């Protein structure tokens, strides 16, 4: 006999299926020299020892395969499932990050908010108290839960690995030679676990009344030290940069998106990116790995109605720390007065390495408590994950040998404002042009001076096969002036009738 699985909505069932020979015994070995069947070596081991072997497996997927390979392994697993699964998850995720993984898993199960129902606010507050304000654990582990956690871990590890690789060429740590430590890797992963919880929690609040979001923002951020909030901000900005090319490819060029005036640009704070960041790591990974315009359109089409909503994640991060009793004191004054324990929150995770706190103090030394997290002029620091590295690596980079200097000089601020104004003009002109193409029946990919990829709407006349417009080409109209051409387009009536219509590439 051998074991198979079948999935149900709530559990995984294991069923013994007979082989071709119903009389055969499990795990029996025979050879030409044997006069009697002999049991396999596995069956000679004590059940407790087999449980220890299963507990040493590195991940739940491998555990699942092993217990299906031998019914004695399955018997041992069934004997101590919770203990075995807990050890396997410790092997895969580690004790430092397992509570964050549990919180991320639970955050995906939050119900849609209904603030007309008083119980909604209570349920959200209870979730924060039990899962965010303290580091949770599970009393009983199941393989079903472990497989779900493992899937989250896979997405976390994917983005953490990409972020670490990206930072190798950014910021002062690019000059360091020391291999990435386990503490640093766990710190990157923990930032993405917390971001997953952050995005899941506030995704359920997207589009609700703003004061409700503000109330929960304070509750969500209250247990974190300021450098822990900036760790989440590092993950937030990295994920935004990662999906920005896919988003812009559609928002900047798709005729339909232009007709709807969907914003595009080079910042993670545009509304569309802010909404997509609330969808969670699994969905963001799809955007990060798509390479064609068609795939990206298909992904964004699911969320098109929400891409112009008011951004909230960046605002929550920027306003998520009030400085407690230091709103009007700089960090330097707080440290010199010796009141840091009163003004700076204790971190939720006890990090034995002082690197994150020390580099945060270096970056915000002259800032008041109202500006201790996620400030726009620290975006370069966030880009290289400044609060995610060990003290030894930061020392090796020699970054502490000079004070932090604000890169936003008046000249640079003026240049940024000018560039933003130019970008806005280009975007609005793009919207106008794509609205024109849309009114004429065009769809698909468009760019200034290039309408060769636009798909034009055509119709079949009567029973014949004549066409009202030429497909896959630009349409030109003769006018004595630009204003005249615009007036002509505004008053033009397209010759569509209530007949069969379709698209030609």
From TrEMBL:
This is F-box domain-containing protein. It comes from Sarocladium strictum. InterPro entries: F-box-like_dom_sf (IPR036047). Residues 1-33 are annotated as: Disordered. Residues 17-32 have a biased composition (Polar residues).
């Amino acid at each position: 006999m051998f074991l198979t699985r079948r999935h149900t909505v709530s559990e995984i069932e294991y069923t013994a299926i007979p082989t071709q020979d119903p009389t055969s015994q499990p795990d029996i070995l025979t050879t030409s020299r044997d006069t009697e069947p002999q049991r396999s070596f596995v069956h000679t081991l004590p059940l407790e020892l087999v449980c220890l072997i299963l507990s040493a497996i590195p991940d739940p997927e491998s555990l699942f395969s092993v217990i299906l390979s031998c019914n004695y392994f399955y018997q041992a697993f069934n004997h101590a499932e919770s203990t075995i699964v807990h050890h396997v998850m410790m092997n895969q995720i580690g004790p430092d990050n397992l509570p964050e993984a549990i919180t991320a898993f639970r955050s995906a199960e939050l119900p849609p908010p209904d603030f007309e129902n008083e119980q909604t606010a209570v349920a959200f507050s209870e979730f924060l108290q039990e899962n965010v304000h303290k580091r949770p654990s599970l009393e009983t582990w199941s393989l079903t839960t472990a497989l779900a956690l493992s899937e989250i871990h896979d997405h976390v590890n994917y983005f953490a690995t990409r972020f670490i690789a990206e930072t190798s060429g950014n910021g002062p740590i690019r000059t360091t030679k020391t291999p990435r430590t386990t503490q640093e890797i766990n710190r990157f992963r923990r930032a993405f676990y917390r971001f997953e919880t952050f995005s899941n929690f506030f995704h359920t609040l997207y589009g609700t009344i703003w004061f409700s979001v503000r109330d929960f923002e304070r509750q969500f951020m209250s247990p974190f030290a300021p450098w822990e909030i900036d760790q989440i901000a590092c993950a937030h900005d990295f994920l935004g940069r990662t999906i920005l090319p896919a988003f812009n490819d559609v928002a900047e060029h798709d005729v339909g998106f232009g007709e709807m005036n969907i914003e595009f640009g080079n910042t993670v704070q545009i509304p569309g990116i802010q909404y997509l960041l609330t969808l969670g790591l699994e969905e963001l990974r799809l955007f990060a790995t798509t390479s064609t315009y068609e795939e990206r359109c298909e992904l964004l089409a699911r969320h098109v109605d929400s891409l112009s909503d008011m951004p909230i994640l960046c605002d929550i991060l920027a306003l998520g720390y009030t400085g407690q009793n230091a709103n009007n004191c700089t960090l330097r004054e707080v440290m010199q007065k010796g009141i840091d324990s009163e003004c700076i929150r204790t971190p939720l995770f006890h990090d034995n390495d002082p690197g994150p706190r020390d580099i945060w103090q270096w970056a915000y030394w002259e800032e008041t408590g109202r500006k201790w997290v996620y400030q726009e002029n620290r975006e370069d620091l966030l880009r290289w994950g400044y609060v995610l590295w060990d003290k030894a690596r930061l020392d090796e980079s020699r970054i502490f040998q000079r004070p932090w200097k604000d890169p936003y000089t008046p000249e640079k601020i003026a240049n940024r404002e000018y560039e933003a104004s130019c970008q806005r003009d280009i975007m609005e002109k793009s919207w106008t042009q794509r609205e024109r193409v849309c009114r004429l029946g065009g769809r698909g990919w468009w760019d200034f001076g290039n309408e060769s990829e636009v798909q034009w709407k055509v119709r079949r006349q009567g029973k014949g096969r004549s066409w009202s417009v030429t497909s896959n080409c630009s349409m030109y109209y003769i006018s004595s002036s630009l204003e005249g051409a615009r007036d002509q387009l505004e008053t033009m009536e397209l010759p569509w009738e209530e007949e069969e219509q379709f698209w030609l590439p």
